[in-house]
Design goal:
- It comes from [Myrmecia] bisecta.
- This is NB-ARC domain-containing protein.
- InterPro entries: Apaf_helical, P-loop_NTPase.
- The protein has 93 residues and is mainly α.
- The protein has one domain.
- Helices cover 61% and strands 6% of the residues.
- The chain contains five helices and two strands, in the order αααααββ.
- It is globular and about 30 Å long.
- The two termini are 24 Å apart.
Length: 93
């Protein structure tokens, strides 16, 4: 489910393995968290951007198991909406 939202495909890109594992730990297996975080990370095509975003959530103790964790993810995705635009099938910042 996460990979469908993050990559629009069934499996991960090879270089993203560790970042994906970290993102899945943040989501705690919760379907809505998998969807929201996957959709958020979809706009980042570079592994360094992914690592930076996942590190932000890890450093701030964000998990889908707490209300504060969910609110943090939603707040960050909302803030980034103003900095990206949809360009024919992918997000550009």
């Amino acid at each position: 489910m996460f990979c469908w939202h993050a990559f629009s495909r069934a499996g991960p890109l090879p270089t993203f393995d560790q970042a994906i594992n970290d993102a899945l730990r943040i989501c705690g297996g919760l379907p809505l968290a998998l969807k929201v975080l996957g959709d958020y990370l979809y706009r980042f095509r570079d592994i360094m951007q992914w690592k930076s975003e996942v590190a932000f959530f890890k450093e701030n103790g964000v998990t889908a198991q707490t209300n504060q964790g969910v609110i943090s993810v939603l707040r960050r995705t909302y803030v980034h909406l103003a900095t990206v635009e949809w360009l024919g099938g992918y997000w550009s910042s």
